[in-house]
Amino acid sequence: MGAEDELLEAVHESHADALYRYVVRRTGDEEEARDVVQETLLRAWRHPEVLERSEESVRAWLFTVARNLVVDHLRSARRTREHATGHLPEREEHDRTQAVLDSWLVADALVSLSPDHRAVVVGAYYGGRSVAELATELGVPTGTVKSRLHYGLRALRLALQEKGVTS
């Protein structure tokens, strides 16, 4: 740790609490006060020549910088136009109309499949089950599940095309 860092740490130890209390009294906002104190100490770090002055001079400089930051913030457009609120705004929700219509089309097309094909397609795509799991569940060989899945998807594609859905 260099001499400047030690000096800045000593300045922080000596003045940060007093600066914080001063800014809280000026702003009434603890969060803002922390930000102002941090910015004040950052400016002191950027101007190490200030830290070499007498203790009273450093303190006066820090409080002047803090006061100016508070005044700048109070005058800022953000402060005059933005207001804190206790509740979050409603989240934007995307229009799900098309998704609902698509799901109706698929559900209607699934009804047109044979029960065996429908069971395999629904189990695989909506249930997330593997071919082996479906074979065990339906009591048929895995080759039969694969065949039913292939022909079921083919029939589903044709049913959707009949309803005007293009790929």
Automatic annotation (TrEMBL):
Gene3D superfamilies (UniProt xref): 1.10.1740.10, Winged helix-like DNA-binding domain superfamily/Winged helix DNA-binding domain (1.10.10.10)
UniProt keyword Transferase present: no
Pfam family, one: Sigma70_r2
InterPro entries, A to Z: RNA_pol_sigma-70-like, RNA_pol_sigma-70_dom, RNA_pol_sigma70_r2, RNA_pol_sigma70_r4, RNA_pol_sigma_r2, RNA_pol_sigma_r3/r4-like, WH-like_DNA-bd_sf
Protein's UniProt keywords contain Transferase: no
Record keywords, A-Z: DNA-binding, Sigma factor, Transcription, Transcription regulation
Domain RNA polymerase sigma-70 region: 13-80, 109-157
GO biological process, one term: DNA-templated transcription initiation
GO molecular function: DNA binding; sigma factor activity
Entry's family note: Belongs to the sigma-70 factor family. ECF subfamily.
Name of the protein this chain belongs to: RNA polymerase sigma-70 factor (ECF subfamily)
Annotated source species: Myceligenerans xiligouense
